[in-house]
Records
---
Amino acid sequence: MTVKIAGLSLANPVMPASGCFGYGEEYAPFFDLSRLGAVVVKGTTAEPCAGNPPPRLAETTGGMLNAIGLQNPGAAAAREKIVALQQWSVPVIVNVSGHSAAQYRAVIEVLDDLSALAAYEINISCPNVKAGGMAFGTDPAVVAALVRELRCATKKPLIIKLSPNVTDVTAIARAAAEGGADALSLINTLLGMAIDIERRRPVLANLTGGLSGPAIKPVALRMVWQVTSAVEIPVIGMGGITNARDAIEFLMAGASAVAIGAANFTNPLVCPETVEGIRSYLAENGFASVREIVGLAKKEWQK
Amino acid sequence: MLKLHTLKIIKQEPVAPGYQRLTLARGIAAQAGQFVQVRASETFDPFLRRPISVHDAAEDRLVLLYRTVGRGTALLAAKKAGETLDLLGPLGSSFPLTDRAQAVVVAGGIGAAPLYYLLRTLKRAGKQVSFFYGARTEAELLLREEYRALATNYSEATDDGSAGSRALVTDLAAPAIASLDATVYACGPSPMLKEVARLADYYGRSCFVSLEAQLACGVGACLGCVVPVRGQEKYRRVCVDGPVFAAGEVFFC
């Protein structure tokens, strides 16, 4: 079940998606976190961030919209939460968010000495903040420059999390790879909105929010397929995964690992259940390792 | 490992048009004020769990009283005795007991649901309880005889005067909040909670309110259900910091 991503060796290819798993502590009562391939913690900014006013959530058909607005305690306070995750001996990937290159760098400066921190996931794709976030993730030149700058700020692996809210995701992916990214994460949420017809106004206080859940899976899968065809670096695939079958689709599309987001809210055990489901699939179908199914659908398609 | 339960449904009964009482086979050590996250569908329609307050609990039973408002609660209402229910809980904070010998409890509509267990808890603790039960109309004063039986003093208010006083329940409760050396508890619509909190603050009573919010995870991870903290540039989570808050903590008092 082991996979290698960005120089990290993961015991299995399944991790929770950033923002859906807090700093791990909320889900630790449900299962042994060491059963995860990695823990990806909440988007962390240099300074504490209060986030957006409520309402922040709207349930939609087969999914949900969120506009949390990167609420987090800030990098200094996040340190102890990251260190606390060490007790499960699971690689910790920290999602780094900001509104400027300097702010991303500031987070790395505060956290870089932590041995518990295995890699950074650079969030250039949050749709719910007014400046930065997704604005960073939609221009290839800006992406390449940011990654290059952060590349100089740390020796730890850099995973760049891409936005689906672009015309050509492969252009952004190539830019990140050229900038020196070790891996890519995709997709972040799709920009959407909802209207309450009784109150006759938008549901979310932020007007728009990020769509996640099973409804977005086909879009995510298509983008993973495209990006893994366009770049050599490994991809962590995510977007609407709710079980092992979904995860296997992403692996077969070319993802080297997968992340599970909103499905944790419905089923707190979805991550360990997905690990076991992949294991069973491999055994039942005579595969010796996860690596054997990575990109398998592509190989079949090219035949 | 923890908190995720599959419980057998003992009874599913309509208590008024659009309102159901669901009795499950095990109490899961829930406290008054806590809630559970119920999975209404095996599929992803609806996608999220439904947060439902604990109406009553004992070692051998967990009772939920809920209004059928949408697809999730309609699916829940269709479940029958003998079937099982997947739920997460108990979650959130509970109503604290104080050293006061008296309590004023104010309910608005389906906000009465978690207050039944509170009334039972207060009674068991030997408190004198004045209960004020408000609803739009008589039919929505659910299980009124059961509530009446638990209160030392019991009063009703309806918007249309079909039962009790034709008044706001907060107007009915105001003299008690003013005159009794009591702890005040409330659950109901926001304007009602705001007014109860204002009265309690004015007369110097401790006051605890139970809030409702759209939830996703229910365990504190997603930060979707927050309420602003009074006078501060930050938010608290309804699901783990609440749903029961000291009234002074939250924004509307």
---
Amino acid sequence: MKKFMNSADEFLKESLQGFGAAHKDIVTCHYDPNFIIRSKTTKEGKVALITGGGSGHEPMHVGFVGYGMLDAACPGFVFSSPSPDQMIAAIEKVNSGAGVLFIVKNYSGDIMNFQMAAEMMTGPSETILTNDDVAVENSSFTTGRRGVAATVIVEKIVGSLAEHGGSLEECKQLGEKVNKNSGSMGVAFSSCIVPAAGKPTFKLGVDEMEFGVGIHGEPGRRRDKIKSAQEITNELSNAILEDLKLENKDEILLFVNGMGGTPLSELYLLYDNAKKILDDKKIKIARSLVGNYCTSLEMQGASITLTKLDPELVKHWDSAVHTPAIRWGM
Amino acid sequence: MSVDFLIKRAKEIQVVIDSNAPEIEKLDQEIGDGDHIFNMQRGIKLVIELEPIIKDLSMSKALNQIAMKVLSGIGGSSGALFGTLFMTMAKSSNIDKGVSYKKAIDMFTNGVEAVKERGKADVGEKTMMDVLIPVANCLKQGIKNDKNLKELMIETIETAEKGMLSTKNLLATKGRASFLGERSKGHIDPGARSSQLMIKTVCESILNC
């Protein structure tokens, strides 16, 4: 294993310390329990958006704390859900009385820990569960679809509504709409290495890819031989288009996300290939996002997310945001 | 059963889990994401480190401290599930004036019931519940039938092993392994394996005392 680290035990702490110091104008990091809040106090009467999940997906979620997006993020150990004491400590700092909205990716550990936090806290709370990964079948007999890259879009859009005075119920509804309008699917060319494990989570042959991979390197639909970018993009896009039932003239946000180990040049190439498919189907790309936002440590791979837009979603996507990882409009 | 009993068992469990770590890690890499063993090792270490703080506390307070420690120190599903187990055990009535084996079994089975609620998983879903639920039922039945403690421990060890092995051919429908669908078959669930090892360790030390 080659990683910039001193010891597996100190990995998360040192990384968070660096993050906090580098972005001290925007965020304040608290330790033991670990949580990150905005450096400016959340204004009175604003719904508090709190999220969290295992570390290793940076900038998700800590990089999205700031004006127009999250009020707090609780990072767990690498690929492991945060615990309720982190959420409770964050709530004490950011709950201004208008209620707390938890944004949770659909993973058993995250769900259980956020549920315990909701039981332990006082005052109103609601939860948005994201489950945009179309690689996994949705069935009442399984944990269901995973929450992956579209969580970034949910956090941006709901963050805007909360900043502009949306109520707890309105924020929850909007978040659920974005989630329902979104579909994602990813592919990995290599595994990631959890620092504490010190070796790859899974093994792929030099000419193999994991199709429909999860953001922790969990297997997806199948293992396959590597194909051309256009063929991979076709398959990813078609799976999402089929799931979202997009039609002619629908407007969408196209989000090409890197898993951490793929250069931007390749992500833009994927964007080009996806655009060809969408142009062909007369689906209009109204907004775009390209980059490493929901990563899996050093995994080589990418995911495509499509979100069906309407004027309300466009307005909240475009509104001003100022976080360590996403900044525009101000 | 005393707080000292809990600490001693935790130390024994640490030895057993450490010596089986490569196997558990491998099982998790086959159908999970590979972090289960680290979570277990971290949790057990944290519980053992609590010794100076909890050794003179009442049973309910000691169990609550353990619950909060595993909840915050392990994180993930394991933290929530084991935290729920110990929290529920701590809530059992009249445990501060001595805990008989009968009472201990009662505490444990209540805890397993709460874990089942928290994780929304039942027998047959390829999780640690395939060990914990049959074990709880076996213990309950043993108490009901006034079974000899040593016999009951032997039976519990067998039940745990059977439950653990049963996960091999099951299709995972809960947790990370569920994303694999059919590909999850043919592998023993790592959580079932670690639970079975812990149960075996506790039962064996009761047998040997």
